[in-house]
Structures are given as structure tokens and as C-alpha cells.
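Title: Prediction job returns without error message
Component: structure pipeline
Severity: low
Priority: P3
Assignee: unassigned

Description:
Job completed but the reporter wants confirmation the result is attached to the right record. Sequence as submitted:
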Amino acid sequence: MRTRHVSLRNLLLGGGFIFAAFGTGAFAADVTPDRLANADKEPGNWLMNHRTYDAQRYSPLDKINKANIKGLKLAYAVAIGGTSVNENLEATPLAEDGFLYVVDQWGVLYKIDARSGDAGRIVWRMDPGQEKTADANRGAALWGKFVITMANYPARMIATDKETGKVAWETSLGDGQANLEFTAAPLAVKDKIVIGASGGDKGVRDFIAAVDAATGKLAWRNYVIPAPGEPGSETWKDKNNAWQTGGGAMWVTGSYDVATNQVLWGTGNPIPWSDPYYRPGDNLFTASLISWNPDSGKMNWYHQYIPGDMWDYDEEGSHILIDGVVDGQPRRIVTHAARNGFLYSFERANGQTVMTKPYVARVNWTKGIDQKTGKPVEYDPNRDVQVYSGQQNYTRAEPTKTLCPSMSGGNNYFPPSYSKKTGLIYIPSMSMCNEVTMDQEAIKNGIYFSRTFKNTERNESDIVAADPLTGEVKKKVHSVFPNVSGVLSTAGGLVFTGYIDGTLVAYDDASLDTLWKINVGTGFNAPPITFEAGGKQYVAILSGLSRQSKGRLALTPELREMRNQTMLFVFGL
């Protein structure tokens, strides 16, 4: 572990960091653990990746509402990044007291003055000098006087002074794995910054770690894939040492339950994804929801969604904390719209299954989920390679099958939103199937993620409104374009989302009727937020498509020549 303190002189003379500081008016207050734990008391701010620890992505702001939404217009736009034709923006902007903090694909951090309401002025930018790789960067965290970001190659966490743009500390989180990377936004919890590692599809044994927020010193690190002799290692039954490159990536930011002091984080698929015979067994703790103690890093409990997953059904996506009443009893649950097409709710205290029902129209990998265990009904603990429905499972005789939902999901990294106003979860979901082939040759060539899949249908999507307590789907609205953006719901009765074709839409939260939309001509790959500045409410979203998102346009001929621009768009009345 390496901690480097960088002087202002070194920043000015080189070292890969670039910033320019300008007068920003009064100094902002520190973002304390109390402010983060009570983020709902600051409805005009967006202080963390999901706005609040419960990951609901719901805003109490209602100045933009059903009655006046038709008057929403572009307030201003800011060019972000733009150093490569392959660049994409997936980050959630943070907003504090009229300033926005935005991260581009290369980990470059921008502070933007949004107080005027008619222009966004870049105050400073911090460039960590990251290699221009095809990774994602999903955002930053605020803690104290710092903005905390991640950078890759080498993998590290960086604390930047939010007033000056000066780097306060930089900590290497490398563990000797060449392809280790970080794509999730960090999560500030009390006096620590918690982060999950990525790179699983490149053969990384992923981990979750916590860093002391004040100093950058590594506090603890725990691996998702157990080493031989550790609990869960018996579920890796191979003789190939597959655990060493086993995956379990954590590439979407987790949630935090203040009352019970647990961080809840989803994990990705086992590696190699396309050959379950190479890694027989359940492959713990991949494709799981895991509860961790943020102070010690101890695992409290887990639920594995698909033991021995063979379809790249990562379950790293958002896990939303909701309080409600089930069968007349108050319940504190964690809800997940799984990539595998099912909506799950669990008891937050212990992971006991409360409910699970499908939210997509077509599921063929299983005949259903056991309502008591939360596992597929065909799961057999005595099998080394699961059969499940028998319709989609790979065999050596039939290596190619049609998978529903597709490998993309269902939902994926694009976050749903839960509305306190309606009591519904709004899920951005792919609606297609695709063709997938088992590849036993890839691992012999050192390829852990074999691209042996093919889109056979046009990539389209739904916004699904469902009850997280019962699983009942209340409404759906269909789009002929993919949705890889995510959803924002507000007290104004609105549901915002973006599409690959460059359309930003506001739906009625009850009927899902389209109330307003605009097309900016470049696709969205990042979630929208809302914030206040100068007493006015705004909606902000980043544009710029990843290579994977562009690939989804193969069967969408009208968008093949759409250009890619990395921008911040801000809308207001």
C-alpha cells in the first residue's frame, strides 16, 4: 500500500496533475458523516452517488413537477473530456451548494460553478494521468473537505481539496494483479471510504476495501473469492486454481444501512464466465449480495442469486433499502432488480428472502425462484454444474443456446429508482434475448471473458414500475431504443431517464405517460440527477456512449451514424 502526499509545487511543475483554481466565493462546509447520514435534510444537494445511503435515487424536490414540466428547457451545457472517440461518461454528478463535481472516463475530476443558472463554469480540474483505457468511471464521493475519486493503471484512490483542486493524498490499492481496476464510485461511511474492485472479466480476484478518509491509509481489504481453506472455498471444486482469477467484481456503488451499520454490495459473475466446467461448484461469493461491517470488513451475511452462474448474470447492480409493510408486518428490506430478470426483496438484518418475482416478460434460464430460499427452483447442491431449466444450460453437445433475458439483463449497471411518493420502484430494463455459446477454448488462450454471444433481436427497453413489497408489476413503458442510463424519481411526480438515441424523457410517475422529452443528438450512458442552485431546481445528465453501448446499436440502423459527444447537460424552467 502506497500513500503519496503531493505538494502544490509538484502539482504545478508536473507529476501528471493539472488544475486551475479560481475564486469560488465562501468556502463550503465540510461534508461530515452526520450530513451524509441525513442527506435528505439537504434536498437541494446530491451528496453521494445514489443521493442517499438507501440508494433510492429519489429527490424530495418538486419545483419541477407535472404541472410545469412542459416548460423545462436546456439551461446550459459543458464539454467534458473529449480526448478520445471511444470515451464515454457513466458518472453520477455530485451537487453541493451550487457546485457540481463530475468525473470523466479517465478519472479527471471537474468542479463546475452552477450558481448562475445560465452557464456552467469549470472552476478547476484534477487530472490523475490515467492511461486511456476502455474502463468506466461512475463517479466520486464527498467527505470532509475532499472529493474522493478513483483512477486506474495503477489502481488508486485520490483525495482532492474541493476548494483548491489540490491533491491531499493518493493511495495505491494495487495488490499485484495486473488488470485490477475500479469503476464504481466510492462510498463514504463514517471515517472511511469504502470501494469495491473491478476487472473481474479480465481475470481479477476482486475485493472490497476501506481507506481512512483523512489520511488515505488502507484500513482493511477482503476478497470476494475465498482462498483455499477459507469459508466458501469448498464451492470452487476445480483443479485449475480458478479462485485466483475468479471475478466477483463490484462495479456499482453499494448502499449503507445506518441503523444496523452494514454496507450492502452486489458482486459480479464468476470467471471464466463462458465455461462452468472449468470452475465446477457454486463459486461463492460471486453473483451475490453481501453484507459487510464497514468498520472491520467482516462479512455479516450473503445471498447468492445464481450458484455457478454461466450466463454473465452479474448481480452487482443497485441494492435499494426500503421500509414498508408486508402481510401487515413492518419490514426493513433490501430490494434488487436482478440482471437475471427477477425482482428480489430480502430482510436487511439477515438476508432472508421476503419476495421474488419476474419483472421481465421472457425468462427461460429457470422455471422460477424458490420463495423461501431465493434460489432457482431447480438448484441442486449436489451438482457440480447446475442444469436449472434445462432450456438454456450449456452442454458440450449443445454449446449454443438462446438466453432470456439477454446477457445484458434485465437491469444492469443502470440504476433503478424507488419513489417515496408512489411506493414503486422504476426499473430500466432491456427487453430482448440473445444467443450465447459456451467457449472452452478461451481460457486456454488466457481470455477470461470470451465474447461468444450474438444479438439476434433489436435492442429495445422498458421502464418497469413495480411494487418492491409484492413484486407486482404495475406499469410498463416501452422504447425502441436501449436504456443504459438509469432512473431518477422526484416528489414532483416525475420519472426521468435517458436513452441511447440521445432522448431525455420525463414520465408521469403514476401512468408512465410521457410528459416531456428532448433529443440532444448524442446518447446517454449515465444516470440523471436533480439539484438546486439559486433557489431553482435543475436536472443534470452526462452524455457519451461506451463501446458496449454503441455495440447495442448493431440492429438499430437509424442510429449507426450518430456521433458521440461527452457533455454535461443541465435543464431548468
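Comment from assignee: result matches the submitted record. The CA atoms of residues 466 and 472 lie 6 Å apart.
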